[in-house]
Design brief:
Number of strands of chain A: 9
Helix content of chain A: 10-25%
Order of helices and strands of chain A: EEEHEEEEEHHEH
CATH topology of chain A: OB fold (Dihydrolipoamide Acetyltransferase, E2P)
Protein name (chain B): Aminomethyltransferase
CATH superfamily of chain A: RNA polymerase II/Efflux pump adaptor protein, barrel-sandwich hybrid domain
Number of helices of chain A: 4
Number of strands of chain B: 19
Largest interface: A-B, 13 and 20 residues
Subunit structure (chain B): The glycine cleavage system is composed of four proteins: P, T, L and H.
Strand content of chain B: 25-35%
Low-confidence stretches of chain B: none
CATH architecture of chain A: Beta Barrel
Shape of chain A: globular
Structural class of chain B: alpha+beta
Distance between the termini of chain A: 12 Å
Largest sheet of chain A: 6 strands, antiparallel
Family (chain B): Belongs to the GcvT family.
CATH architecture of the largest domain in chain B: 2-Layer Sandwich
Structural class of chain A: alpha+beta
Keywords (chain B): Aminotransferase, Methyltransferase, Transferase
Order of helices and strands of chain B: HEEHEEHEEEHEEHHEEEHEHHEEEEEE
Mean pLDDT of chain A: 93
Number of domains of chain B: 3
Oligomer: heterodimer
Mean pLDDT of chain B: 96
Strand order of the largest sheet of chain B: 10-11-12-9-3-13
GO molecular function (chain B): aminomethyltransferase activity; methyltransferase activity; transaminase activity
Amino acid sequence: MSAIDKVNKDYRYSAEHEWVDSSTPAKVGLSQIAVDALGDVVYVDLPEAGTTVTAGEVCGEVESTKSVSEIYSPVTGTVVEANDAVVDDPAMLNSDPYGQAWLFTVEVESEGELLTPEEYAAAQDDED
Amino acid sequence: MNTEESKPTPLTAVHERLGASFTDFGGWWMPLRYGSDVAEHKAVRESAGIFDLSHMGEISVTGPDAGAFLDHALVGRLSAIEVGKAKYSLLCNEQGGVIDDLITYRLGADDFLVVPNAANTPAALAALRERTTGFDGEVFDVTIEDRTAATALIAVQGPASEAILLEVVAPESTDAVTSLRYYAIVDVVVNTPSGELPVKFARTGYTGEDGFEIYVDAQDDDGAAERLWTVLESAGQAHGLVPCGLASRDSLRLEAGMPLHGHELSEQIDPYSAGLGMVVALKSKEAFVGRDALAQIKENGPARKLVGLANDTKRAARPGYTVLHNGEPVGEVTSGAPSPTLGHAIALAFVSPDLTEPGTELEVDLRGKPTAFRVVELPFYKRAR
């Protein structure tokens, strides 16, 4: 399977595998490529509502049976809501990373460097 | 990841068809998981899993001096193994460090099969060949042959293993399977759609469950491994058998408290530190490679010891993380994961010998956050018998 098949075409992506949608406030999540590399997710640590996140900086953690990975915020702004459902049931990230398992929403002040779905997928294929 | 440098096994095409995620492991292109590694792990605990272990090495040691040679080269007394039985042993360097941990099967009076780890097979072969000349300059009358490429290895592990294997063997092999004891090996005939397939069943494993490892000669029959896998998969369906990758193999062995070379064992780690002093035959063997250093380490006591750590969260301690006691560094984590069976974090770590008592409260630095862990008895998980 090439990377483009694992990319949701409606979102934009950071090089660190986070996706962000175009709604207001913006939803942030992890790409399926990142989730597949992690394996079964068992723990998710998210920024709380009201905290400030900065594009390109660590704002949380995702832990799987095999490894732990940091969440980098793709945008700068204030967190409006963290997704408690994914904290309670981290396995949701494996089954629906582009839907129910969004991580948090942000009132965006500015964006980091974001890639189109095609650019993001191409960057992954280059790494193989 | 580099597919050009990783060797395929005789079953790589099967794993691709099953949709596996792959990884390089010890120079081999191996399935990491087929779907959920936690589901694969649980299947082995509750029913059964099937693993491709063809990356493991197979070294044939034959000849009139085979037993005496292995006594010289390894730390255990391999000459005492009965024909048809196996023994876990270590290949140590002169300093007492572990070049590899391996299982040795005695197939005949002068015929042994040594099974090293995939990544260590070249080092194990080189050490064994070098050791064919004994301390007195006498050359052991043995033949050492690398059979790795000619051998496929499939493991069936879990409580349903025996029932599954009984469905695939020829009627005359039934008794051989049911009477096969732990750490024993026997010739068995498997029925496949294209005829009978002679293989060896060993009742060994790396999961903490009952299970079998099946050695298949793939030298003149490169489709044999795939035929066996297919027969096992279809017989296993009704028993809940699932294909399992290396991710679940690692979490299963960790729960069972079994060491993984490169983590709990290495050329810099001696058997006494790793809690494997009982496999070193200091009493029954007067000379073997590494004996002097090992005797010294035993007398002085190791500088650090392997312990099990656990806490009540899912925040796992990972290899390389620092173990703390009252804020001071006292050791290092070698393996760690959230245990799928127990539901909390478990880890193996080397710590100061005075901090190994179960119940001792320690901390692990989880990326800057000191987190409470306590020393627990090993293994973390033991199956009900």
